[in-house]
Amino acid sequence: MGDHEERRREENRDDYVPTQHWARSNGIGVAGFVFAILSVIFCWVNVIGWIFWILGVILSFVGCFKVPRALAIAGLFICFIGLMLLLFAVGGEEAVAGVPPY
Description:
This protein has helices spanning about 1-15, 25-40, 45-65, 70-95. It has about 100 residues and is an all-alpha fold. The protein starts with a helix and ends in a 5-residue tail after the last helix. The mean pLDDT is about 85.
């Protein structure tokens, strides 16, 4: 029984084709995460900050429906923080410019 199994393994050795298992990635979620970080970095530049924030929210939201979704969820969370910083920056600019709050 031992010889028979060895011959069988040798015969099947030529048929063996190794397969590669690719790690799944979520490119849209990663892009949303990157734009979310950029929105926090450039929150003091209103136009660029808002563009990065909108792109981060849209891409992170779409990325939440794909697997893996960890960076997409992190991107949404960072976009929330970025929104607070953007609103704070807009309010600070209005206060410096002397624009009444009403």
